[in-house]
Specification:
With 319 residues, the protein is of the alpha+beta class. 43% of the residues lie in helices and 16% in strands. Helix 4 crosses helix 5 and helix 4 packs antiparallel against helix 6.
Length: 319
């Protein structure tokens, strides 16, 4: 049971009297609170002289506990109605082709999960720490797949976030043509870092500050990680054959190295295909890959076109 004010109880009682005038409220209590996209939804367990109801706020609606015996189900249904976009549709991390940057997105996911329950300043500070960890995970992976090539004496320390951001942006977006892109990515990442640092130590932060930190970090890392991955996988800005921007990744395996998955960019307009690059999930694997200098397959990769939904035994029996 969560603490509640008399005015809140009165508002819920009046709402029940309005929605169900033939029922008499005998008992009610606030049992759960969750923040979703700047809206706080409070769940009330309401007992009447006939049955029980869930009343969920912002916007307020009621759900029969006979139809929704599980509170989580009622909350999910309520939020789905509010957003008109089921949360289950959000792609899972395992479904995203973000190797080897998965760690930073895992930290982002944890920060967004923590945001749903954050209510006090200490919660906001802890969320700021998670955002910092996500940003450090990004530079930690990026500095391995895009190692320092300058003077060894000038190499930044591993935790020097701003220096590594400068190096990563200069490497993946080099040249005059990328000046504005380079400035944008550096600004997004560094300002996200500065704001997360502030939130970690702020004594008077609000839930909206925590939301801003989590959302900004997720957005900045999503954009920056995409550019890093395109750089590592040698994806051109446009098709070198026809100039089209309609490039899509294509994955497959080759019989000569069946334990490795490969990816190459393919033009959806003219059919041009780039050189296949091995997909390595762990950033440290890129160091070994450079030492091994594993050659690319010398023939076409096998591109599966049929989803494997079931295993069949000889004779047509399903396993």
């Amino acid at each position: 049971m969560l603490p509640s004010k008399p005015e809140e109880k009165q508002a819920i009682t009046e709402y029940m009297n309005w929605q169900a005038p033939d029922l008499k409220v005998e008992f009610l209590q606030k049992v759960y609170v969750e923040n979703v996209l700047s809206h706080q939804h409070a769940v009330w367990d309401v007992h009447t002289d006939v049955d029980r109801w869930w009343v969920i706020t912002d916007p307020t609606n009621l759900y029969s506990q006979e139809q929704f015996p599980n509170m989580d189900l009622a909350v999910t249904f309520h939020v789905g109605l509010c957003l008109r976009m089921p949360r289950a549709d959000k792609p899972k991390l395992s479904d995203l082709g973000v190797e080897p940057m998965a760690a930073c997105f895992r930290h982002c996911s944890e920060a967004l999960d923590a945001l749903k329950q954050a209510q006090e300043v200490t919660d906001f500070q802890a969320l700021g720490v998670r955002c910092r960890e996500a940003l450090l995970a990004f530079t930690g992976a990026a500095q391995i797949v895009m190692p320092w090539t300058g003077d060894p004496a000038a190499k930044p320390k591993q935790a020097d976030f701003k220096a590594w951001v400068d190096h990563v942006c200069a490497t993946m977006l080099s040249g005059q043509t990328h000046e504005h892109r380079r400035h944008l990515f550096k600004t997004l990442l560094i300002e996200s870092w500065n704001f997360s640092n502030w939130l970690t130590h702020a004594k008077a932060s609000t839930w909206y500050d925590a939301e801003a930190a989590a959302s900004t970090v997720e957005h900045a890392l999503g954009l920056a990680a995409t550019v890093v991955i395109r750089h590592v996988r040698h994806v051109p800005d446009a098709c070198p054959a026809c100039g089209s921007n309609r490039l899509a990744p294509e994955r497959g395996v080759h019989t000569s190295v069946p334990d490795v998955e490969w990816e190459r960019p393919v033009c959806q307009k003219c059919g041009w295909a780039g050189e296949p690059v091995p997909i390595l999930g762990d950033p440290d694997a890129y160091v070994d890959e450079e030492e091994d200098e594993r050659p690319a397959p010398d023939a076409e990769c096998v591109m599966p076109t049929v989803s494997l939904r079931e295993l069949r035994k000889p004779g047509g029996q399903e396993k």
